[in-house]
Design a protein that fits this description.
Length: 272
Amino acid sequence: MPVLVASDLDRTLIYSAAALALTMPDARAPRLLCVEVHESRPLSYMTETAAQLLTDLGDAAVFVPTTTRTRKQYQRINLPGPAPKYAICANGGHLLVDGVSDPEWNAHVQARLAEQCAPLAEVQDHLMASASPAWVRKHRIAEDLFAYLVVERELLPEEWVKELAVWAENRGWTVSLQGRKIYAVPKPLTKSAAMHEVARRTGADLTLAAGDSLLDADLLLAADRGWRPGHGELADTEFTAPAISALPERGVLAGERILREFLKATRTGAPL
């Protein structure tokens, strides 16, 4: 039976220059591979060792990139190894099969959102009205499913984030702060639901997952085994559960460690 590995990407397997956390002496820094170019500039990296580990993992398991990115943002990433048959984008709103969104899955998700939470337009209006232009750089709607802001993190009022989270909670939405982005995402829009669907289609009897943000919590809890790095929202809140391992590594070396753990668990083929 196949092993399914559903992993978040940004700040879990791939890292921007600002998130690399290269704290070692320069001469001991790992060699890096650029895996994403945007507007003709390098944007995201992993270590060369991690690239080889991911290639090995793609041969040993059903590897499913699992991201809050839109399809367009995901498709500019050039991961090493075999091209994944499945990918989860827009926090579970789109299930890609050989690079193409499955329309039945997307329709299923849209129906759940309409039934269970406040409409996107209400959330968008609230963000436009309450967020200050002094620290907001961009307002964005992703795939007509959720909203996010790009902010100046050092100017962002902590109280505003807390108040937004309470406001969103009462309307069936959740808030996540990741780097310079604040996400407002409907609660029924989950990575875990999409992971379960891929597991059903592939017949996987063991599911492994990794992630660093609050939007990854449901994914980690739904998997047979999960890992989180030593940075990010989950580390900051000391998020834990019996089948979830908190790793000490931070930055790009955490991505390398996570891939080693995936491979080890895939080869042993057993949950905790």
